Fold:
Amino acid sequence: MLHLKTNNMNKLIQIFEFVYLVISMVLFTDYFLEFSGNDTNLVLIFAFISFGIFLFRRYYRIKFNNRKK
Structure:
């Protein structure tokens, strides 16, 4: 039972990783195509933060999965 719960949780974490990646791509697109007007620097900052969270969560998920094996 615990294995099934961990497996489902791992899939959920992986989905949220890709949500951060999609948010980052949308914000980078917004920055480079200048849809947001005057707040382009703020959009760029949030794009880098979102991409950093994606990398951070991915690194620790892989590290945790390797430790379980």
